[in-house]
Design brief:
This protein is an alpha+beta fold and about 425 residues long. The chain has twelve helices and 16 strands. β9 and β10 form a beta hairpin.
Length: about 425
């Protein structure tokens, strides 16, 4: 078997590396790996002197590539010094002259394959696979890392700021992360100015991972963007942050032990339930029970004054809040008219599984662990549907019928008769 090694983007040049007290000139090789950007140079006596002198400052680089393009970088950490110097770039590496009059931006993406093209808000959005995408998928499987498999291209009729292009790319990546069940992101950015010049920025954005499987087929990505981009742009502040975190939690449910997966799925549900739904009031029965328990705890504490009454009270009374959380999660589903019965999702069963893990770290009956997977799968799909509905998506999703995968309109899981409970 031929072993394929990860595909690495690289650039060569020469320049000056310096701190406030040390500097040297050297040829360099810059490589962009999934985990970050690394700069290699031949070992230099000045670098060695800096280490021996205890110089722990970060380094800067100013130079040019072999084709004459300018290179600059700050906050470089000297991480290895043997036959070569190795610098880790903790922030941006810039190639070319930075400008804010941008008409086109390109982002090599991790975590997605597909092709589409559409217009939106006086901009052209295009996704196309690399010629090496199939090879990249083989490398991902063998080395358990992600490769750049597609290019996202954004074009504007008039020049706009670089940060506006980046914000649009991040928004598109977050929406596509929901669709693919995989964290879609980028480390490199390429820009073209209105006078035809270009420059690049390399910087690793976030930790990313293979995910829980796509919920939307690549042929439906254009419809997803058309339906969701404007809606998602209006969601700001804590709501935007909660959706982003929930997507990360859901996409991470493909990794780790079953206990971890259950906790992450429940964290995502609880996060969005707290964000978008008020906690339901306690029933009169629960209020009366709490009054009786408080009186009993007070009597008990008088008999055992050395015991921590507040801790016992918190544990006993807090345990009565379980039903309020389930009601809150049901309200979250009802806010988008999602029919939990059509999903066959039992939130009480999900909460019971979560409590087993939260209290003991493991399931009480480990032999039944395989029985938890269907509930986990339904919980992940249910919350992904809720997010899609919040983003006003009305197109097709991946589903199953008679044991075979199929595409169905998301409205199949919607019941307009389901409404929020009056408070």
């Amino acid at each position: 078997m031929t072993i394929e090694y990860p595909i690495v983007s690289e650039k060569r040049g020469s320049g000056i590396f310096q701190t406030q007290t040390h500097s040297f000139q050297a040829s360099f090789l810059i490589q962009s790996y999934p985990h970050g950007n690394i700069i290699f140079t031949d070992t230099h006596n000045i670098a060695l002197s800096a280490v021996l002198a205890g110089d722990i400052e970060t380094w800067k680089l100013k130079g040019q590539l072999i084709n004459g393009v300018k290179v600059s970088a700050e906050h470089l950490y000297l991480t290895k010094l043997d036959d070569k110097c190795r610098f880790f770039a903790s922030r941006e590496i810039h190639f070319g002259n930075i400008s804010d009059k941008i008409t086109k931006a390109e982002f090599p993406l991790f975590g997605i394959s597909g092709n589409f093209s559409l217009g939106f808000d006086n901009k052209h959005i295009e996704l196309h696979e690399n010629d090496t995408s199939e090879k990249s998928r083989q490398i991902e499987y063998f080395w358990d890392i992600q490769q750049e498999t597609s290019w996202l291209s954004l074009t504007s009729k008039s020049s706009i700021k670089r940060d506006d292009f980046i914000k649009l790319a991040i928004t598109l990546c977050e929406i596509l992360s929901l669709a693919t069940g995989n964290t879609v992101t980028f480390n490199r950015q390429k820009f073209e100015t209105n006078n035809g010049r270009s420059f690049e920025t390399w910087r690793r954005r976030v930790q990313f991972h293979s995910g829980s499987g796509s919920i939307i087929h690549s042929v439906d990505y254009p419809e997803l963007i058309k339906c969701s981009l404007a809606s998602y742009a209006t969601i700001e502040g804590s709501a935007r942050n909660s959706i982003r975190k929930a997507i990360d939690y859901l996409n991470s449910t493909s990794h780790g032990f079953m206990e971890d997966k259950i906790l992450r799925a429940c964290q995502a549900w609880e996060l969005l339930a707290d964000e978008f739904c008020e906690k339901p009031p306690e029933s009169e029965e629960i209020k009366r029970l709490k009054t009786l328990l408080k009186a009993s705890i007070k009597t008990w504490s008088q008999k055992y004054p050395d015991k921590d009454k507040s801790e016992v009270s918190d544990r006993v009374l807090g345990s009565l809040s379980w039903n309020r959380l389930i009601l809150q999660m049901k309200e979250l589903a009802a806010s988008e008219h999602l029919d939990l019965q059509k999903l066959d999702l039992d939130l009480f069963e999900l909460k019971k599984m979560r409590d087993q893990v939260a209290h003991t770290g493991i399931f009480n009956n480990y032999s039944e662990k395989k029985e938890f997977y269907p509930t986990l799968k339904k919980a992940v799909m249910g919350l992904r549907l809720i997010i899609l509905l919040k983003l006003t998506y009305t197109g097709n999703i991946k589903s199953s019928k008679d044991g075979f995968q199929t595409r169905e309109l998301i409205e199949k899981f919607v019941n307009k008769d389901i409404t929020l409970t009056p408070t």
